[in-house]
Input
Amino acid sequence: MPGAPPDTNEAPSLLAVEELSLSFGGINALTLVDFSARAGSITGIIGPNGAGKTSLLNCISGFYRPTHGRVIFDGADVTRVPPDRRAALGIARTFQNVALFEGMTVLDNVKLGAHARLRSGIVSTMLMTPSARREELELRERVEREVLDFLEIEHLRRRTVGSLAYGLQKRVDLARALATQPRVLLLDEPVAGMNEEETEDMARFILDIQEERGVTVVLIEHDMGVVMDLCERVSVLSFGERIAAGPPAEVQAHPEVVRAYLGEEAT
Output
């Protein structure tokens, strides 16, 4: 599309959207957006408020169905696949506003995310048959070992989420997404509202998720320091259209990005 050269990654894309459009009552939230994320990379989506960033993530995760275009995951068209099936396929997400059960413990919140991967059917789970009970115990052990320990919140596993500071709640939200064993992790403003120390911790965890687990990460973020430090490539949205895509330093200097995102003239 005009002003947005096509992505030229040599490695195959694990996730892509093609000419994606989304409308609400005649208002265009997204217009013919193309986007891709290379397998094993960290890709950023930036833009001013109201640019359509969260709408794009909602289309990728299945919460919104686009009015035009396709969502491609691992070579398959998942545009009409419901959110729970996309989670089971390996697409997980966090939310800009923490969406946790505040009266439940950290462990129980995180286990909810992992249930997308359980083999036991709903009847077996409700009746707690021997096989379902064994799987539940295995799930708890895996969550504590592979998720809570990894994100350094194992000591909080019995605390209710509502008793935790905001930065820790954001980490629990990440843990719940990670418990689904995702291949693609969609992060909606993962460091929003955090202090400097919390931001550094979250950035470290995101890098570890990508480097140690090979998870493909797509993140929306306003903190340009985080974007520059973490992302291999960045796509920029403005008024629902993609206006630039490329390496962070190149995109940050793009004249249209300077005008639309930074609010000043290019020098």
Notes: The radius of gyration is 19 Å. Residues 130-148 form the longest helix (19 residues). The mean pLDDT is 86.
